[in-house]
Design goal:
single chain, 266 residues, mainly alpha, two-stranded antiparallel sheet, 67% helix, transmembrane, EcfT
């Protein structure tokens, strides 16, 4: 399960999506997520599916690698579908004991499952095709206007980048600790909920110690390099929009216009 989490990982390959400016990918991801919550019909979700499929094809990242991240939220996805399926009032379709599946509930459950799946896969396209450093530079550039109201934009972007970078590191550390504890006779699977919670203590304690140690080492390394925040800092590779980025903005504009039309046209 731990190896199925793809958030924060970067897939090294050569593609047009990898070469795009990180600001383009951040804006595209935000617009895509917003569109998922705006569209409310089959045509809108079909359009989102075609757009997402096109981005995956252009990214050259294997589709199997992207859907691995869905396993981590499978329980949440099933729970959301069940709640929408049985708790949404409307025209009854099927009655099971005291539970009733309605036409509106079935429609909402299907749309919610598709929405969550597209949201996770769409976010994975951005993180898998963008290095943490580029992601930091992109976020800092987009949030730059907030500096006028004294928001520490660079520090916020740096913290988000470090958090994303630490996710795969901590997952790998968790996997190593779990295997070491299992080799010593630990059992993380059997027993009731309370017993399973207690069995996690030998896993969580060394994991927290390792996380704090890594955080301390990182802080010392940044201090040794005289890191002093974003004020007056320069970029080795400044972000500059290129022709392919303007083309991507044009495609994004067409997608947004088509998504709005699917909502406005009955």
């Amino acid at each position: 399960m731990l190896r199925d989490i793809t958030l924060g990982q970067y897939y090294q390959t050569e593609s047009v999506v990898h070469r795009l400016d990180p600001r383009v990918k951040l804006i595209a991801t935000v617009i895509f997520i917003i569109s998922l919550f705006v569209v409310n019909n089959f045509r809108g979700y079909l359009l989102a599916a075609l757009f997402l499929a096109g981005m995956i094809k252009l990214s050259h990242v294997p589709f199997k690698f992207m859907i691995k991240g869905m396993k981590a939220i499978l329980f949440l996805l099933i729970l959301t579908v069940v709640f929408n399926l049985f708790l949404t009032p409307g025209e009854p379709l099927i009655s099971l004991w005291k539970l009733t599946i309605t036409k509106e509930g079935l429609r909402t459950a299907v749309f919610m499952a598709v929405r969550l799946s597209f949201l996770i896969i769409g976010s994975s396209v951005m993180t898998l095709t963008t290095t943490p450093n580029n992601l930091t530079d992109g976020m800092e550039s987009l949030l730059k206007p907030l500096k006028r109201i004294h928001v520490p934009v660079h520090e916020i972007s740096m913290m988000m980048s470090i958090a994303l970078r630490f996710i795969p590191i901590l997952l790998e550390e968790t996997d190593k600790i779990m295997k070491a504890q299992i080799a010593r006779g630990a059992d993380f699977e059997s027993g009731n909920l309370i017993k399973k919670a207690k069995s996690m203590v030998p896993l969580l304690v060394p994991l927290f110690i390792s996380a704090f140690r890594r955080a301390n080492d990182l802080a010392m390394a940044m201090e040794a390099r005289c890191y002093r925040g974003g004020e007056g800092r320069t970029k080795m590779k400044p972000l500059i929009y290129k022709k392919r980025d303007y083309t991507a903005f044009a495609v994004l504009g067409l997608y947004l216009a088509a998504a709005v039309l699917t909502v406005l046209i009955p």
